[in-house]
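To the wet lab folks,

You asked to see what we're planning to order before we commit. Fair enough. Below is the target structure as C-alpha coordinates, and below that is the sequence we designed to fit it. If anything looks off to you, flag it before the synthesis order goes out.
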Protein backbone atom coordinates (compact mmCIF):
# COMPACT_ATOMS: atom_id res chain seq x y z
CA UNK A 1 0.00 0.00 0.00
CA UNK A 2 1.16 3.53 -0.78
CA UNK A 3 1.28 5.90 2.19
CA UNK A 4 0.23 9.50 1.65
CA UNK A 5 -0.46 12.86 3.23
CA UNK A 6 -3.20 15.21 2.07
CA UNK A 7 -2.33 18.83 2.82
CA UNK A 8 -5.65 20.66 2.73
CA UNK A 9 -7.96 17.67 3.12
CA UNK A 10 -11.08 19.72 3.91
CA UNK A 11 -10.93 21.79 0.70
CA UNK A 12 -12.43 20.84 -2.66
CA UNK A 13 -9.30 19.09 -4.00
CA UNK A 14 -8.66 17.38 -0.67
CA UNK A 15 -12.22 16.04 -0.52
CA UNK A 16 -11.96 14.82 -4.12
CA UNK A 17 -8.71 13.05 -3.25
CA UNK A 18 -10.45 11.25 -0.41
CA UNK A 19 -13.24 10.29 -2.82
CA UNK A 20 -10.63 8.55 -4.99
CA UNK A 21 -9.04 6.89 -1.93
CA UNK A 22 -12.49 5.63 -0.97
CA UNK A 23 -12.67 3.81 -4.33
CA UNK A 24 -9.18 2.33 -3.89
CA UNK A 25 -8.97 1.50 -0.18
CA UNK A 26 -6.68 -1.49 -0.69
CA UNK A 27 -4.02 0.60 -2.45
CA UNK A 28 -3.51 3.57 -0.13
CA UNK A 29 -3.11 4.30 3.56
CA UNK A 30 -3.32 7.82 4.94
CA UNK A 31 -0.53 8.96 7.24
CA UNK A 32 -1.45 12.64 7.57
CA UNK A 33 -4.36 15.03 6.99
CA UNK A 34 -4.05 18.80 7.40
CA UNK A 35 -6.40 21.78 7.31
CA UNK A 36 -6.60 25.34 8.58
CA UNK A 37 -9.79 25.58 10.66
CA UNK A 38 -12.45 23.06 9.59
CA UNK A 39 -12.25 20.81 12.65
CA UNK A 40 -15.71 19.25 12.19
CA UNK A 41 -15.02 17.92 8.72
CA UNK A 42 -11.54 16.88 9.81
CA UNK A 43 -13.05 14.83 12.63
CA UNK A 44 -15.41 13.12 10.17
CA UNK A 45 -12.51 12.35 7.84
CA UNK A 46 -10.49 10.89 10.72
CA UNK A 47 -13.30 8.60 11.77
CA UNK A 48 -13.58 7.23 8.23
CA UNK A 49 -9.95 7.15 7.06
CA UNK A 50 -8.08 6.79 10.39
CA UNK A 51 -4.91 8.76 9.58
CA UNK A 52 -1.99 8.45 12.00
CA UNK A 53 -1.51 12.21 12.23
CA UNK A 54 -3.63 15.36 11.92
CA UNK A 55 -2.55 18.99 11.81
CA UNK A 56 -4.83 22.02 12.14
CA UNK A 57 -3.15 25.39 11.67
CA UNK A 58 -5.55 27.28 13.92
CA UNK A 59 -4.97 26.71 17.66
CA UNK A 60 -8.64 27.10 18.57
CA UNK A 61 -9.54 24.60 15.87
CA UNK A 62 -7.07 22.14 17.41
CA UNK A 63 -8.92 22.26 20.73
CA UNK A 64 -12.31 21.99 19.07
CA UNK A 65 -11.10 19.05 16.97
CA UNK A 66 -10.22 17.01 20.06
CA UNK A 67 -13.66 17.69 21.54
CA UNK A 68 -15.35 16.81 18.25
CA UNK A 69 -13.35 13.63 17.79
CA UNK A 70 -14.13 12.29 21.25
CA UNK A 71 -12.38 9.29 22.76
CA UNK A 72 -13.13 6.75 20.06
CA UNK A 73 -10.03 7.45 17.95
CA UNK A 74 -6.99 7.29 20.24
CA UNK A 75 -4.80 6.20 17.29
CA UNK A 76 -4.97 9.72 15.77
CA UNK A 77 -2.15 12.02 16.91
CA UNK A 78 -2.82 15.76 16.72
CA UNK A 79 0.34 17.65 15.77
CA UNK A 80 0.76 20.85 17.74
CA UNK A 81 2.95 22.99 15.50
CA UNK A 82 4.66 23.42 12.14
CA UNK A 83 7.88 21.79 13.36
CA UNK A 84 6.06 18.54 14.13
CA UNK A 85 4.28 18.76 10.77
CA UNK A 86 7.61 19.05 8.95
CA UNK A 87 8.93 16.02 10.82
CA UNK A 88 6.06 13.88 9.56
CA UNK A 89 6.44 15.17 6.00
CA UNK A 90 10.13 14.26 6.18
CA UNK A 91 9.42 10.80 7.60
CA UNK A 92 10.52 7.74 5.62
CA UNK A 93 7.07 6.25 6.27
CA UNK A 94 5.51 8.83 3.92
CA UNK A 95 5.70 8.34 0.14
CA UNK A 96 3.15 10.67 -1.48
CA UNK A 97 2.25 14.25 -0.55
CA UNK A 98 -0.92 15.70 -2.07
CA UNK A 99 -0.56 19.50 -1.99
CA UNK A 100 -4.22 20.54 -2.08
CA UNK A 101 -4.15 23.79 -0.12
CA UNK A 102 -4.71 27.22 -1.69
CA UNK A 103 -2.18 30.07 -1.78
CA UNK A 104 1.49 30.61 -1.00
CA UNK A 105 0.85 29.04 2.40
CA UNK A 106 1.51 25.78 0.57
CA UNK A 107 5.10 26.65 -0.32
CA UNK A 108 6.72 25.68 2.99
CA UNK A 109 5.29 22.13 3.18
CA UNK A 110 5.81 21.60 -0.56
CA UNK A 111 9.44 22.69 -0.18
CA UNK A 112 9.80 20.33 2.78
CA UNK A 113 8.34 17.43 0.80
CA UNK A 114 10.66 18.04 -2.16
CA UNK A 115 13.63 18.44 0.17
CA UNK A 116 13.00 14.92 1.44
CA UNK A 117 12.47 13.30 -1.96
CA UNK A 118 8.71 12.73 -1.85
CA UNK A 119 6.34 12.17 -4.75
CA UNK A 120 4.31 15.38 -4.79
CA UNK A 121 0.88 15.57 -6.39
CA UNK A 122 0.57 19.30 -6.96
CA UNK A 123 -2.70 21.21 -6.95
CA UNK A 124 -1.21 24.14 -5.04
CA UNK A 125 -0.28 26.10 -8.17
CA UNK A 126 0.76 29.22 -6.23
CA UNK A 127 3.80 27.53 -4.66
CA UNK A 128 5.04 26.45 -8.07
CA UNK A 129 4.30 29.81 -9.67
CA UNK A 130 6.44 31.72 -7.18
CA UNK A 131 9.22 29.14 -6.70
CA UNK A 132 9.15 26.87 -9.74
CA UNK A 133 12.83 27.22 -10.61
CA UNK A 134 13.99 26.63 -7.03
CA UNK A 135 11.67 23.64 -6.58
CA UNK A 136 12.81 22.12 -9.89
CA UNK A 137 16.47 22.45 -8.96
CA UNK A 138 15.85 21.00 -5.52
CA UNK A 139 13.92 18.02 -6.91
CA UNK A 140 16.87 17.15 -9.17
CA UNK A 141 19.11 16.95 -6.10
CA UNK A 142 16.73 14.94 -3.90
CA UNK A 143 15.00 12.71 -6.45
CA UNK A 144 11.57 14.12 -5.63
CA UNK A 145 8.94 14.07 -8.36
CA UNK A 146 6.44 16.86 -8.98
CA UNK A 147 3.27 15.58 -10.62
CA UNK A 148 0.47 18.00 -11.58
CA UNK A 149 -3.13 17.21 -10.64
CA UNK A 150 -4.73 20.43 -11.87
CA UNK A 151 -6.96 19.27 -14.72
CA UNK A 152 -5.13 21.37 -17.35
CA UNK A 153 -1.61 20.33 -16.43
CA UNK A 154 -2.64 16.73 -15.89
CA UNK A 155 -4.08 16.81 -19.41
CA UNK A 156 -0.79 18.10 -20.86
CA UNK A 157 1.13 15.42 -18.93
CA UNK A 158 -1.10 12.76 -20.47
CA UNK A 159 -0.77 14.24 -23.96
CA UNK A 160 3.03 14.19 -23.65
CA UNK A 161 3.25 10.56 -22.58
CA UNK A 162 5.51 8.67 -24.98
CA UNK A 163 6.97 11.84 -26.51
CA UNK A 164 10.74 11.31 -26.53
CA UNK A 165 11.86 14.40 -28.41
CA UNK A 166 10.91 17.80 -26.98
CA UNK A 167 11.83 19.39 -30.30
CA UNK A 168 8.78 17.73 -31.87
CA UNK A 169 6.43 19.87 -29.76
CA UNK A 170 5.18 23.13 -31.26
CA UNK A 171 3.11 24.59 -28.40
CA UNK A 172 0.99 23.84 -25.36
CA UNK A 173 -2.64 24.95 -25.27
CA UNK A 174 -4.35 25.41 -21.92
CA UNK A 175 -8.14 25.46 -22.06
CA UNK A 176 -10.42 27.35 -19.72
CA UNK A 177 -14.18 27.61 -19.35
CA UNK A 178 -14.14 31.41 -19.42
CA UNK A 179 -15.82 31.49 -16.02
CA UNK A 180 -19.18 33.06 -15.21
CA UNK A 181 -18.60 36.32 -17.13
CA UNK A 182 -17.59 35.04 -20.55
CA UNK A 183 -20.73 36.48 -22.18
CA UNK A 184 -21.32 39.38 -19.83
CA UNK A 185 -21.10 42.90 -21.20
CA UNK A 186 -17.73 44.37 -20.25
CA UNK A 187 -19.45 47.66 -19.38
CA UNK A 188 -21.25 45.85 -16.56
CA UNK A 189 -18.09 44.37 -15.00
CA UNK A 190 -17.97 47.21 -12.47
CA UNK A 191 -21.18 45.84 -10.92
CA UNK A 192 -19.96 42.25 -10.42
CA UNK A 193 -20.52 41.02 -6.87
CA UNK A 194 -18.55 38.44 -4.86
CA UNK A 195 -21.54 36.07 -4.99
CA UNK A 196 -21.59 36.25 -8.79
CA UNK A 197 -17.81 35.81 -9.05
CA UNK A 198 -17.85 32.68 -6.88
CA UNK A 199 -20.61 30.96 -8.84
CA UNK A 200 -18.72 28.92 -11.44
CA UNK A 201 -20.67 27.44 -14.37
CA UNK A 202 -18.60 24.23 -14.61
CA UNK A 203 -16.43 23.52 -11.58
CA UNK A 204 -17.28 23.39 -7.86
CA UNK A 205 -14.32 25.18 -6.26
CA UNK A 206 -13.40 27.34 -3.29
CA UNK A 207 -14.06 31.08 -3.30
CA UNK A 208 -10.51 32.23 -4.07
CA UNK A 209 -10.06 29.88 -7.03
CA UNK A 210 -13.53 30.75 -8.32
CA UNK A 211 -12.71 34.47 -8.36
CA UNK A 212 -9.40 33.69 -10.11
CA UNK A 213 -11.36 31.76 -12.71
CA UNK A 214 -13.74 34.67 -13.25
CA UNK A 215 -10.84 37.10 -13.86
CA UNK A 216 -8.85 34.38 -15.68
CA UNK A 217 -6.00 35.02 -13.27
CA UNK A 218 -6.07 31.25 -12.80
CA UNK A 219 -4.95 30.87 -16.43
CA UNK A 220 -2.26 33.48 -15.89
CA UNK A 221 -0.92 31.41 -12.98
CA UNK A 222 -1.32 28.19 -14.98
CA UNK A 223 0.76 29.55 -17.85
CA UNK A 224 3.59 30.26 -15.42
CA UNK A 225 3.13 26.87 -13.75
CA UNK A 226 3.21 25.10 -17.12
CA UNK A 227 6.48 26.85 -17.96
CA UNK A 228 8.13 25.36 -14.86
CA UNK A 229 6.46 21.96 -15.17
CA UNK A 230 7.12 21.29 -18.82
CA UNK A 231 9.94 23.66 -19.77
CA UNK A 232 8.06 25.56 -22.49
CA UNK A 233 7.50 29.27 -23.03
CA UNK A 234 5.14 28.91 -26.00
CA UNK A 235 1.85 28.44 -24.16
CA UNK A 236 -1.53 29.58 -25.46
CA UNK A 237 -4.94 29.80 -23.79
CA UNK A 238 -8.19 28.80 -25.48
CA UNK A 239 -11.62 29.30 -23.97
CA UNK A 240 -13.70 26.14 -24.09
CA UNK A 241 -16.97 26.71 -22.20
CA UNK A 242 -18.06 23.07 -22.07
CA UNK A 243 -15.01 22.01 -20.05
CA UNK A 244 -14.62 18.67 -21.84
CA UNK A 245 -11.20 19.16 -23.46
CA UNK A 246 -8.85 19.97 -20.60
CA UNK A 247 -5.79 20.94 -22.64
CA UNK A 248 -4.00 20.16 -25.92
CA UNK A 249 -0.50 19.74 -27.28
CA UNK A 250 0.34 20.74 -30.85
CA UNK A 251 3.30 19.12 -32.59
CA UNK A 252 5.52 20.38 -35.36
CA UNK A 253 3.66 18.29 -37.93
CA UNK A 254 0.55 20.31 -36.85
CA UNK A 255 -1.21 17.30 -35.35
CA UNK A 256 -2.92 17.84 -32.00
CA UNK A 257 -3.39 15.53 -29.04
CA UNK A 258 -6.08 16.42 -26.50
CA UNK A 259 -7.28 14.91 -23.24
CA UNK A 260 -11.05 14.68 -22.75
CA UNK A 261 -13.24 13.84 -19.76
CA UNK A 262 -16.15 15.25 -17.85
CA UNK A 263 -15.12 18.18 -15.61
CA UNK A 264 -14.38 16.25 -12.42
CA UNK A 265 -11.23 16.71 -10.33
CA UNK A 266 -11.33 13.08 -9.26
CA UNK A 267 -10.10 12.07 -12.73
CA UNK A 268 -6.75 13.95 -12.76
CA UNK A 269 -6.27 13.08 -9.09
CA UNK A 270 -6.71 9.37 -9.84
CA UNK A 271 -4.25 9.70 -12.73
CA UNK A 272 -1.65 11.16 -10.37
CA UNK A 273 -2.26 8.66 -7.57
CA UNK A 274 -2.13 5.63 -9.84
CA UNK A 275 0.59 6.66 -12.29
CA UNK A 276 1.94 4.87 -14.27
CA UNK A 277 -1.09 2.61 -13.86
CA UNK A 278 -4.71 3.71 -14.13
CA UNK A 279 -7.03 3.35 -11.13
CA UNK A 280 -10.73 3.86 -10.51
CA UNK A 281 -11.52 7.57 -10.15
CA UNK A 282 -15.16 7.15 -9.27
CA UNK A 283 -15.99 9.67 -11.99
CA UNK A 284 -18.56 9.27 -14.74
CA UNK A 285 -17.83 8.31 -18.33
CA UNK A 286 -18.01 10.92 -21.06
CA UNK A 287 -21.20 10.33 -23.09
CA UNK A 288 -20.52 11.59 -26.61
CA UNK A 289 -24.16 11.15 -27.60
CA UNK A 290 -25.12 13.84 -25.09
CA UNK A 291 -22.52 16.34 -26.30
CA UNK A 292 -24.25 18.66 -28.76
CA UNK A 293 -21.34 21.04 -29.22
CA UNK A 294 -17.68 21.64 -28.38
CA UNK A 295 -16.99 25.34 -28.83
CA UNK A 296 -13.80 27.40 -28.66
CA UNK A 297 -13.08 31.10 -28.58
CA UNK A 298 -9.97 33.23 -28.23
CA UNK A 299 -9.82 35.06 -24.87
CA UNK A 300 -10.76 38.74 -24.96
CA UNK A 301 -7.79 40.58 -23.44
CA UNK A 302 -10.00 43.60 -22.69
CA UNK A 303 -12.34 41.46 -20.60
CA UNK A 304 -9.57 39.35 -19.11
CA UNK A 305 -6.43 41.54 -18.92
CA UNK A 306 -4.90 39.26 -16.27
CA UNK A 307 -3.78 36.89 -19.01
CA UNK A 308 -1.28 39.45 -20.31
CA UNK A 309 0.47 39.51 -16.93
CA UNK A 310 1.74 35.94 -17.35
CA UNK A 311 4.07 36.74 -20.23
CA UNK A 312 5.09 40.02 -18.60
CA UNK A 313 6.22 38.11 -15.51
CA UNK A 314 7.90 35.36 -17.53
CA UNK A 315 9.88 38.06 -19.34
CA UNK A 316 10.76 39.82 -16.06
CA UNK A 317 11.45 36.65 -14.06
CA UNK A 318 12.88 36.85 -10.53
CA UNK A 319 10.52 38.06 -7.83
CA UNK A 320 7.85 39.19 -10.31
CA UNK A 321 6.04 35.87 -9.80
CA UNK A 322 5.88 36.36 -6.01
CA UNK A 323 4.76 39.95 -6.48
CA UNK A 324 1.96 38.94 -8.88
CA UNK A 325 0.70 36.14 -6.67
CA UNK A 326 0.78 38.09 -3.40
CA UNK A 327 -1.00 41.09 -4.90
CA UNK A 328 -3.67 38.83 -6.36
CA UNK A 329 -4.25 36.98 -3.08
CA UNK A 330 -4.67 40.25 -1.19
CA UNK A 331 -6.94 41.78 -3.83
CA UNK A 332 -9.18 38.72 -4.08
CA UNK A 333 -9.53 38.55 -0.29
CA UNK A 334 -10.45 42.25 -0.17
CA UNK A 335 -12.95 41.84 -3.02
CA UNK A 336 -14.62 38.93 -1.23
CA UNK A 337 -14.86 41.11 1.89
CA UNK A 338 -16.47 43.91 -0.14
CA UNK A 339 -13.59 46.33 0.39
CA UNK A 340 -12.76 46.83 -3.30
CA UNK A 341 -14.67 46.45 -6.56
CA UNK A 342 -14.21 43.73 -9.14
CA UNK A 343 -12.31 45.93 -11.59
CA UNK A 344 -9.98 47.07 -8.81
CA UNK A 345 -8.44 43.57 -8.67
CA UNK A 346 -6.54 43.89 -11.94
CA UNK A 347 -5.97 47.63 -11.52
CA UNK A 348 -4.19 47.21 -8.18
CA UNK A 349 -2.20 44.13 -9.22
CA UNK A 350 -0.87 45.99 -12.26
CA UNK A 351 0.05 49.00 -10.14
CA UNK A 352 1.92 46.81 -7.64
CA UNK A 353 3.87 45.13 -10.44
CA UNK A 354 4.74 48.51 -11.97
CA UNK A 355 5.96 49.95 -8.66
CA UNK A 356 7.83 46.87 -7.38
CA UNK A 357 11.57 46.45 -7.60
CA UNK A 358 11.96 43.06 -9.31
CA UNK A 359 15.02 41.19 -8.07
CA UNK A 360 16.77 37.92 -8.79
CA UNK A 361 15.78 34.92 -6.68
CA UNK A 362 18.74 33.12 -5.17
CA UNK A 363 17.06 31.34 -2.27
CA UNK A 364 13.58 30.68 -0.97
CA UNK A 365 13.89 33.54 1.54
CA UNK A 366 13.94 35.99 -1.38
CA UNK A 367 10.48 34.75 -2.36
CA UNK A 368 8.98 35.27 1.09
CA UNK A 369 10.55 38.73 1.33
CA UNK A 370 9.08 39.75 -2.03
CA UNK A 371 5.74 38.26 -0.99
CA UNK A 372 5.70 40.33 2.22
CA UNK A 373 6.68 43.57 0.46
CA UNK A 374 4.07 43.04 -2.23
CA UNK A 375 1.34 42.42 0.33
CA UNK A 376 2.23 45.60 2.21
CA UNK A 377 2.12 47.66 -0.98
CA UNK A 378 -1.14 46.02 -2.07
CA UNK A 379 -2.81 46.72 1.27
CA UNK A 380 -1.78 50.38 1.06
CA UNK A 381 -3.33 50.68 -2.40
CA UNK A 382 -6.46 48.84 -1.26
CA UNK A 383 -6.92 51.36 1.54
CA UNK A 384 -6.59 54.23 -0.95
CA UNK A 385 -9.22 52.81 -3.33
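Sequence we intend to order:
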Amino acid sequence: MKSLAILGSTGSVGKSTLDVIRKNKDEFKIELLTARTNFRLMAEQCKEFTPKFVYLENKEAQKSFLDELGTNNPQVTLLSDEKELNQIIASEDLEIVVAAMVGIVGLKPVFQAIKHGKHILLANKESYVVAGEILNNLSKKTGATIFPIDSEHSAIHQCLMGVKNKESISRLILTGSGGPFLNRDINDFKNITPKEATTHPIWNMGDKISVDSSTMMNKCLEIIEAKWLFGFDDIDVLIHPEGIIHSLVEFKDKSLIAQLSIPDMKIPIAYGLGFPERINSGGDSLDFEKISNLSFVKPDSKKFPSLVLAKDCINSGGTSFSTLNAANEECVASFLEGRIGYLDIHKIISEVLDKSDIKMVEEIGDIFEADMQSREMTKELININ
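Structural context that might help your review: The chain has two domains: 2-148, 154-316. The radius of gyration is 20 Å.

Thanks,
Computational group
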